[in-house]
Amino acid sequence: MGHQELTTPTRFSWDGPCHEVYVSGSFTNWEQKIKLENVDGVHSSVLHLIPGPYQFKFIVDDVWETSNGYELVHDELGNANNYILVGHPFENPEMKQLDQQFTTRVPLQPEQMWANFPVEVPKVLVRTPLNANIMSKQYVPQTLLQIPDHVILNHFFRQRKRKAYQVNSSTVRYRSKYVTVVLYQALDDGTQKEVPELVDIFEKYQLK
């Protein structure tokens, strides 16, 4: 009997209003589509894949789609696909870094070593309503914001690079509806602040 390669449990998820979702990719040589199970409005399934890079795509109600929750790449034909790098099932990046640093000598203060390894924010958490580029002249309530990724739900976000005021937001979901609350808080310096992106919206919808 030949050597059997170890596989890694890998979850594929699609969040959004739809009826049926399938996933297909290079892990099946694009010859098979796998149905995702619907649990509380989130379609997902765990596949056992051999470690390595894979391109894949979702089939949402018979339409091929890519998800913002995964890295986006283009194949040799120019088609946009999602990309995932499946690691070894027993691979721990932090422990691998430790093995490269230590021999038989234990540092006097090992807790200080973690200060050199800050956790990077996943790219999907950058795609929040606060980072959406919205033109006030194009303000249409029904199509203003895209359906948010499920990974940003129930998180508190603060926008940086604001000198006159702070901007905070949080997004929650109830069934198929999404509600985003944005709080603009002026810095306490005794002057009146104007939020440029809200001026036109306020003038258009204020009571006359």
TrEMBL record:
GO cellular component, one term: cytoplasm
Domain of life from the UniProt record: Eukaryota
Domain Association with the SNF1 complex (ASC): 91-187
InterPro entries assigned: AMPK1_CBM, ASC_dom, ASC_dom_sf, CRP1_MDG1_kinase, Ig-like_fold, Ig_E-set
Gene3D superfamilies linked: 6.20.250.60, Immunoglobulins
Protein family: Belongs to the 5'-AMP-activated protein kinase beta subunit family.
Protein name: Beta subunit
Originating organism: Hexamita inflata
